[in-house]
Amino acid sequence: MDDEIDGRDPGEETREAPPLIALVDRLHFLIRSRLWAQIVAGMLLGVGVGLLLSPSGAALVEARTAEVIASWLALPGHVFLALIQMIVIALVTSSIVVGITSSGEPGELKRIGLRIAPYFLATTTVAVVLGVLVASTIEPGRYLSEALVRDALAAAAGEEEPGPIAEMPTGTSLPERIVEIIPTNPLDSALNESMLQVVVFAILMGIALLAIPRERARPVLDLAGSVQEISMKVVSWAMVIAPLAVFGLLAQITTKVGLEALIGMSVYVGTVLLGLAALLTVYVVIVRVVAGRPALGFLAKIREVQLLAFSTSSSAAVMPLSMKTAEEKLGVSPSIAKFVVPLGATVNMDGTALYQVVAALFLTQVFGIDLPFGSLVLLTATTIGASIGAPSAPGVGIVVLASVLHGFGVPAAGVVLVIGVDRILDMARTAINVSGDLTACLVLDRWLAGAEVGALPSTAPEAPA
Predict the structure, then answer these.
(1) Which domains does the chain have, with CATH numbers?
(2) Rounded to two decimals, what is the model's pTM?
């Protein structure tokens, strides 16, 4: 009976990783239990409790006591983030290896890779351009009071400044930077969360496993499948406490910044959400025009994935559900879904890229920094590069933002201004990220199907006259 639950036939030798159904069933109870309602309730209660504790709100207790209470309330949130960050390297690596080897042959992998790489780059560029347009048009930084900026910087003066995930070395040429993408020490890359290097390592491992005899590769394939299953088990544990995590983190943040800061940041929040809505519209147009699918039908089929991504703020956490949705509801080829979704969860961060450029322009407006056209182009290119390979874990966008702002004259402490509302925006942009991955699956499936039809010789008998 246990073997049936795990999706394995005890009398049949395992040929590949455990089926997605066995992994996704462990997540569906979250959908059935209305996780979205629990998350929304956690958000509202978190903000309410934070306002009751905040010195700038009801101030029911002393400031020091409020800080201690808020730190304990945020404990489930920090546990949630730690669990996701702990397992994200193993999950991404094993999923990419399993996805590549499931394609069956190197030729199929080459056909997919040569098409998906320029597509990812194009959609990320579109996302960044949309972010520049909405931020330059609305100028949300002009609506923030100088007093609020001064208070935020003063509060950050004694705190440790956020640092970048991985800064590109200065003074190196472009060829040298390309070489540095290849991890000379994969363990060091994993330790430093250099996700682009981790992805390159996983891709090379998957290709090498395809190139050797299947019986020699089987032990590593079984190991990758086991690691993927173990990772998903940890993820399912983490998502059980997601509502408490959101409640505690928002309560702690609201206690620190107060109601005035949240209201003052409302224009900035609206600008980011408007940009994300525009990006989702672009995806819908791509699905209709390029993939030839009904727009409303596409949105209806991916809503469970969007909901779970919004709830967990992690595209890696919903990776199995994304692959299952792509295969069963969207009708995408399994080899495409198993390769594109894990890869997209790491390198196709369109929502994150849009958010980063809006936040960067917002902070330049707050501090009165005028960016000439050349600097704006450089900011755009830097944002695209920073979003590729960023860890697909909750809260990582705010850390990546610190690296994007480096060199543009914005004080590192200025990131404190956007931390207060980052949780809500993190949830929204993660939902857009997974929508982009599923859009990519549909587009690639359509392209490869068209290529196969075009490549087939005309062997059918002629119709009788």
Answers:
(1) 19-450 (1.10.3860.10)
(2) 0.66
